[in-house]
C-alpha cells in the first residue's frame, strides 16, 4: 500500500473523460461513432479523432492551403470547435470561421 501512495495517479491517463487504458485497448473499443447523439459528450463521440498536434503538423501550419483544408476537416469531420482550432493555431476564432466559410464555398468541400 505504501508503494501506491507515492505512485502517479491513474487518472492522468484517462482518455475522453471516461476510459482508462492503453491506446491499444481504446482501439478495441472503437465502434462506428454516433456523432449525432447529443446526450453523449463530444469528447466521447470523437474518441478516435486525431489530436490537434497531429492534425496540424508543422508542414500543415506553414502551407496556408493545407492549413485551411485541415481547419475544415477538424471542424466538420472530427468535431473540434472553431475556438479549439483557433487557440491551437494562434488565430482569432473569427478568422477560423472566415476560413471555413471560404473553403466551403469551394466545390471540393461540397457534398
Account of the protein in words:
The protein is mainly alpha-helical. It has two domains: 48 residues, no CATH class; 63 residues, no CATH class. Helices cover 53% and strands 4% of the residues. It has eight helices and two strands. It has a two-stranded antiparallel sheet with strand order 1-2. Helix 6 packs across helix 8 and helix 7 packs across helix 8. The longest helix has 13 residues. It is elongated. The termini are far apart.
Would you spell out the secondary-structure blueprint of this structure?
Blueprint: H1 2-6, E1 14-15, E2 19-20, H2 23-29, H3 42-45, H4 52-55, H5 58-62, H6 64-76, H7 82-89, H8 93-105
Antiparallel strand pairs: 1-2
State the main characteristics.
111 residues; mainly alpha; 2 domains; two-stranded antiparallel ribbon; 8 helices; 2 strands; 4% strand; elongated
